[in-house]
Every structure is written in structure tokens, then in C-alpha cells.
Design brief:
Blueprint lengths: L13 H13 L6 H14 L3 E5 L2 H11 L7 E5 L4 H9 L3 E5 L13 H4 L4 E4 L11 H11 L2 E5 L7 E2 L2 E2 L6 E5 L12 E5 L2 H10 L18 H12 L1 H19 L6 E2 L11 E4 L6 H10 L11 H4 L4 E2 L4 H9 E4 L9 H11 L1
Parallel strand pairs: 2-3, 2-4, 3-12, 4-5, 5-8
Antiparallel strand pairs: 1-9, 6-7, 8-9, 10-11, 11-13
The structure holds pyridoxal-5'-phosphate.
């Protein structure tokens, strides 16, 4: 279904089309110079020594875990409120995800609960920068250092977000991005692993390409493509400018939301890479009805993420997950893309009327 005001819209233009045409003309579609150039530019943008392109964010997270030696018998701590790909990457690496509740203000992993969640099996923490807001990385890396744990950042929703002067994804042992079309940088499908350790990068590169060059690791076929890498380079070149425009749109939303009674803005904090515009509906609101009514009016809105344990049974958790449940029940994501600013008044008026 195509909505008059969609939830997300890709921001690709003539430079991306020209880049695709260039690859089509030269005819090299895999393992070529476009991917190398995209990886180098991506690593430079993030201030790390290297990057490895993959076919999705979920693949990237799994590859990072496998390359770091995380596997069967190991537990990985992750927030209970996130996209299911975070958990799937851990399961597919053969490890055990352990859900930790989130902070009510940021919707990111609650750092005060991490220590108590650590067991003898814990090997890694996978913080998620949900909805583009950086997780509390200094607390996370402090704990990781003290308890000798690895950190793999799920930065799939947060490309370009700063955390104390560093880009998210560049802070942990590895960071991973996703390029699905609802993301701020898209290549259609795709993803990237970044890291500073050259050995780790070599391992990731081997794992995505049938394990070539590395012994004793299972190989996969998870490579990016030249066409996607050509689009990615153009998207990266315009990223900061586009993120600034998205910040302006979010500011306009914040002003307009002051007139919507009972609605809170979820996870405010700057600087931020705005993935979508998430708000919290008043407790007890029939969110499904709100989403349906907005959609009937041509406005696409979504609930995005439920707490993981509400959807999947049998997943291990560390303590209560009440905050994740509450936020998962009340969140409504509103359209955020370049050009949506002309519709903000209409969107907030429709929401006010429904509530
Ligand atoms: C939090 C999070 N993790 C991981 C991913 C990876 O997604 P994909 O495998 O679709 O690129 C996404 C993308 O939607 C995400 O939002």
C-alpha cells in the first residue's frame, strides 16, 4: 500500500542514478573498486581503520560476533526493546541472547542493569542506538572493560549520530550499520561492519566471502555488491547535509507536538541522527485504532518495536522488562523524511483529533 504521506522515503537522486549507470557500463558487478571505495570512505567518515560491506545489517552483526569468537555457550546482553534482527544475529552466531530492560528516558539499554545481568557465560554486550539516539557508551565501555566483555554496537538506525564527539559504531570493538530503504543512508539492501583492529576486519572480510583466507571459521556468502556500493558512496557524500535537514524536521515536530495533549516525545537527546519521529501515546490509548485512522487519512504511522519477549517466547532475560514492555506498547512512529515538513501540521492535527 502506498500512502499519501509515507513513514519513510528514500532520498536518492541523480548522482545515485549516474553512479549505477557507471557500474552498468563498466560491467563489473561484484568484488570490485566501488565496494573498496565505499568501504574506505565509510571508514574515514567514522574515523576507524576499516570497514567491510555486507548484504544487510543483521548479517553484519552476526559476522562481527563470529569474527570476535562469540558463539555457542556464550551469552550476549542486548536491550529488550529493539528490532528482531539484533536478536537474530546473536542466535545465528550460535550464542544466547539475554534481554536487559531499557532506560525509560532514552529507550536504550539501561546501564544500571548491565552488571546484574552478567553471568559466567557473558561474552559481549550489544547496545542498540534505537531510533537514532546514542546509547550511553561510556558507561557500557567502562563495564565491558572492567568485566572483560566485548562490545558490538548495533548502529543500524543511527548512522551519523555523535556520542561525545565520536560517531556511533566507532566506539565498541565493532559497529554495524544497515542500509535498508527506511534508513538515512540506503543502498536498497546492505550493511557495513566497522572496526579499528585490522585482524578483526580481515576476519570479517573472510567470513562474508566463504571464509577465504581464514581457517577454523565457518564461511558465508554475505557480500555487498558493486551497484549497492556505488549508491552508498553517493548517499554517504550527502549524508551530513541530509541529517541536518532531518534535524530541522524533528525540531518542527517538537514544536508542533506541544499542541498535542498527552503525547510525549520518546528519547530526546542531541546530537541525534533522526531515523523516525517516535512519540509515546498516553497509557491506555488504543494504538491500533490510532494507526488505522491515520492510515485511513493517508498518513502512514507504525508501532515499530514491541519488547522482544512479547513476540518471542523462551528468550532469556535478566530481571524485569517492564520499561521495554511499556514503551513497546505506547510508541507511535511518525513520518520523517526530507519534504515531510509541509505535512507536520496536518499530521499533528489528525493525531490531536484522534486522541
Ligand atoms: C535496530 C536494528 N538492528 C538491525 C537492523 C538490521 O536490519 P537489516 O538486516 O534489515 O539490514 C535494523 C534495521 O532495520 C535495525 O533497526
Amino acid at each position: 500500500m502506498i500512502y499519501r504521506i509515507p513513514l519513510a522515503r528514500t532520498d536518492i537522486g541523480v548522482s545515485e542514478s549516474a553512479a549505477v549507470a557507471r557500474v552498468m557500463e563498466n560491467g563489473r558487478l561484484a568484488l570490485g573498486p566501488e565496494m573498496t571505495a565505499f568501504e574506505q570512505a565509510f571508514a574515514a567518515y567514522h574515523g576507524v581503520s576499516g570497514a567491510v560491506m555486507v548484504n544487510s545489517g543483521t548479517s553484519g552483526l552476526m559476522v562481527a560476533l563470529v569474527a570476535l569468537g562469540v558463539g555457542p555457550g556464550d551469552e550476549v546482553l542486548m536491550p529488550a526493546l529493539t528490532f528482531v534482527g539484533t536478536m537474530n544475529s546473536i542466535l545465528n552466531a550460535g550464542a544466547t541472547p539475554v534481554l536487559v530492560d531499557v532506560d525509560p528516558k532514552t529507550a536504550n539499554i539501561d546501564c544500571d542493569r548491565i552488571d546484574a545481568a552478567i553471568s559466567d557465560q557473558t561474552r559481549a554486550i550489544m547496545p542498540v542506538h534505537l531510533y537514532g539516539l546514542a546509547a550511553e557508551m561510556s558507561a557500557i565501555t567502562d563495564i565491558a572493560e572492567a568485566r572483560e566483555l566485548l562490545v558490538v554496537e548495533d548502529a543500524c538506525e543511527a548512522i551519523g549520530a555523535d556520542y561525545r564527539g565520536r560517531k556511533v559504531g566507532a566506539i565498541g570493538d565493532a559497529g554495524v550499520f544497515g542500509f535498508y530503504p527506511n534508513k538515512m543512508l540506503t543502498t536498497g539492501e546492505g550493511g557495513m561492519v566497522i572496526a579499528d583492529d585490522p585482524d578483526l576486519l580481515d576476519k570479517c572480510r573472510a567470513i562474508v566471502n566463504q571464509g577465504r583466507g581464514v581457517r577454523n571459521v565457518p564461511g558465508y556468502s554475505l557480500r555487498g555488491t558493486e551497484l549497492a556500493a556505488a549508491i552508498g558512496q553517493m548517499q554517504l557524500a550527502s549524508l551530513d547535509e541530509r541529517l541536518t535537514r532531518r534535524q530541522g524536521i524533528a525540531d518542527a515536530y517538537v514544536r508542533a507536538m506541544q499542541n498535542v495533549p498527552g503525547v510525549e516525545i520518546l528519547a530526546r537527546g542531541e546530537p541525534r541522527s533522526w531515523f523516525t519521529f517516535p512519540v509515546l501515546l498516553p497509557e491506555g490509548t488504543n494504538r491500533e485504532r490510532v494507526i488505522e485512522s491515520l492510515r485511513d487519512a493517508g498518513i502512514e504511522a507504525a508501532d515499530y518495536f514491541q519488547a522482544i519477549h512479547k513476540i518471542y517466547s523462551g528468550i532469556k532475560s535478566a530481571g524485569e522488562l517492564n520499561v521495554s514492555e511499556g514503551l513497546g506498547r505506547r510508541t507511535l512512529c511518525l513520518p520523517l523524511w526530507d519534504g515531510v515538513e509541509v505535512h507536520i501540521e496536518e499530521i499533528t492535527a489528525a493525531l490531536t483529533k484522534l486522541l
